[in-house]
Amino acid sequence: MINWKDKRVVVTGGTGFVGSILVEALLQRGAVVRVPTRSDNYRSLSKLRSKIEWIDGDLRDPTYCTRLITGMDHVFHLAAHRRNVGFHHEHCADVLTGNVEMTLALVHAMKEYPHAHVTFFSSANVPPEIDVIRLAQQSSTDGYVLGKALSETLWLTASRQYGFPLLIVRPVGVYGERDTFSEEGNVIPSLMVKAEAATQELLVWGSGKQERVFLYSTDLIDVVFRLLDHDVTSVQYVSPPDVTNVKDLATMICDIVHPGLRLVFDTSKSEGSRSVPVLAPHECLRGFPWTPLAEGLKRTYEGWKAKGK
Fold first, then answer.
1. Cα separation of 12 and 23, whole Å?
2. What are phi and psi of 240, to 5 degrees?
3. Contact between 143 and 95 (Cβ < 8 Å)
4. I need a labelling partner for 192 at 20 to 30 A (CA). Which of 30, 145, 259, 297 fits?
5. Does some domain include residue 280?
């Protein structure tokens, strides 16, 4: 088991939805945490601001990234250019470029300082055998997924050449109370926002038959620590065992947010990718206490409403 006390750690995307939870967990374990920032908006980390080392700069700048990771024991790369599925398709080149530029700059920095362990947060929508040409030639290209796929190849080849340990995690759809709650957000916060504003019916994108697996945000962080404690490297999926469909998900959300709403399905809208992993999770995750979806949804809604008070 890793002793994180006094370990120097950098977390890109540390003020974000998942990154802020990771930063808190690292601080609780005694780590010395550095977070890159480009604004004075510390979001969920505002109360912990004095306990974190903040470094202003642009993650697309190799010189800045070299300064950022020098002296670090571990680099967690979570920063990403992402919105929702529609945006990723309509602006595929911009989304792809934004994500790859950050990885390129960080990989360049690792060449100068190959002494840190790297954990890269990818996506379960990346195919198990990466074929970036096939992904790019699809009739509808998701720039976020393609950007993650390209970034994985960069990290894997850099790890091989420079010799730093690398863990790539591919989580399924992550949700939780720190997500962005808007109609254009991820499926769970989007449905919660629409359900609360609805009067008689809830409009759901797609047929409702599309299958999904959802991962509660704190479970993801606990899994990453478990994988690192077992010295696991390479590509690893993070996925609870239970599969649901969007119709059942929407029903569960209505029961929590606005009971009695009628579901209406808009089949003209994109259903997105089926984020169900095709590779088994690592054996060290056997018996992991996954948060049940119903419980996670309840926590997510209550946490969101509490933030608005």
1. 10
2. -65, 165
3. yes
4. 145
5. yes
Residues in the chain: 309
- Are both 98 and 18 inside the same structural domain? yes
- Is-contact 163 114, C-beta < 8 A? yes
Contact between 180 and 170 (Cβ < 8 Å)? no
pLDDT, tens digit, 9 for 90 and up, residues 165-204: 999 999 999 999 999 998 888 889 999 999 999 999 999 9
Q: Write out the residue range of the structural domain in which residue 190 sits.
A: 178-212+241-309
Same domain for 263 and 138 = no
Structure tokens at 93: 């080149």
* Structural domain count of the chain: 2
Residues 24 and 82 in one domain: yes
Could you read off the pLDDT of 23-72 as tens digits, one per residue? 999 999 999 999 999 777 788 898 999 999 999 999 999 999 999 999 99
- C-alpha pair distances (Å), 145 with each of 78, 80, 100, 122, 135: 14, 11, 11, 8, 9
**213: three-class secondary structure by DSSP:** coil
Task: Using a cut of 0.85, tell me whether the model's pTM lies above it.
Answer: yes
